[in-house]
Design a protein that fits this description.
Shape: globular
Largest sheet: none
Number of helices: 14
Number of strands: 0
Order of helices and strands: HHHHHHHHHHHHHH
Strand content: under 5%
Helix content: over 70%
Distance between the termini: 33 Å
Length: about 290
């Protein structure tokens, strides 16, 4: 007796969630490498190397698909995504260079909270009172981490908060790109545009590079490809709000990396802020809208 296909095949949403989990894990590892590399290279150099190498890695894949590997339907949207991506990468890499890894990751995780109002306005999605309450909790956690009057609040923390807002905007645009473009050409041209935008300022900030660091850039570029490919595919398969819980896994992964890799033990205030952000991001959003 044959097994029904519905039993043998995982649901589209399950596959999309798994892809998003892979994308989030790879993205967090990119941040880990960026934190290390910014100790020796300017943020703009880190951006240029990561996305330039990512484009070179994607080129053979695009060539293998022929003309379809380079065909773009909506170039304006892709240019917008690339421009936002440069801003996002600069803010993330800069905040990682200024803050302890765990603190920066906790503040960047607020992206999932800024994403809610953006999804409502731009993607016409809905959120119940639980999500709005979660926004308040998350902002309270950020307040505990930043603590007005401290140096973190004055500069580095605000850079991370700006990165969280930009990251939310980037993911909204990424969702729109996923619905209109094929994955390979979208990624290839996005990397080319981002590397091109960062090329000139990176040239002036260039200070040489060791072979070991070049190897780290190669690994981080491979992770950039894994992250963006997985997230783009996930967004093409499921609604953005449905995938939000998978985005939340970035925080516990980052906290673990901060402790194990960088030996960063957060202060009690930071732990309390992380706990509030964790509660906010994992807070149930209520029953899904049938449809």
């Amino acid at each position: 007796m044959s097994i029904p296909s519905a039993v043998r095949r995982p649901s589209t949403r399950l596959v999309a969630t798994f892809l998003m989990l892979c994308g989030v894990a790879a993205f967090t590892l990119v941040d880990t490498f960026s934190k290390s590399l910014t100790a020796r290279h300017a943020p703009l150099v880190v951006m240029f190397m990561q996305y330039g190498l990512s484009a070179l890695m994607m080129l053979p894949v695009a060539l293998g698909q022929g003309a379809a590997g380079f065909r773009i339907i909506g170039p304006r949207l892709l240019v917008l995504r690339a421009a936002i991506g440069v801003v996002v990468s600069f803010l993330i890499v800069t905040s990682l260079s200024l803050l302890p890894f765990t603190v920066a990751a906790a503040l960047l995780q607020l992206e999932t909270l800024f994403f809610i109002p953006l999804a409502i306005v731009l993607l016409k999605e809905r959120a119940d009172w639980r999500r709005w309450f979660a926004v308040g909790l998350g902002l309270g956690g950020a307040f505990l981490i930043l603590r007005p009057g401290t140096e973190t609040f004055q500069l580095a923390g605000l850079v991370a908060l700006a990165g969280a807002v930009a990251l939310a905007i980037k993911n909204v645009v990424l969702k729109q790109v996923a619905m209109s473009e094929a994955t390979v050409p979208a990624l290839f041209w996005m990397y080319v545009l981002m590397a091109g935008i960062a090329a000139i300022p990176a040239w002036f900030a260039w200070g040489g590079m060791s072979l070991a660091d070049f190897g780290l850039f190669l690994v981080s570029a491979a992770l950039v490809n894994i992250s963006n490919y997985s997230m783009l595919r996930a967004f093409s398969m499921a609604d953005a709000v449905q995938l939000t819980p998978a985005l939340h896994t970035a925080l516990p992964i980052a906290v673990l990396i901060g402790i194990v890799v960088f030996g960063e033990w957060p202060t009690p205030f930071v732990w309390a802020g992380i706990a509030l952000i964790f509660l906010a991001t994992f807070m149930p959003s209520g029953p899904e809208k049938s449809g």
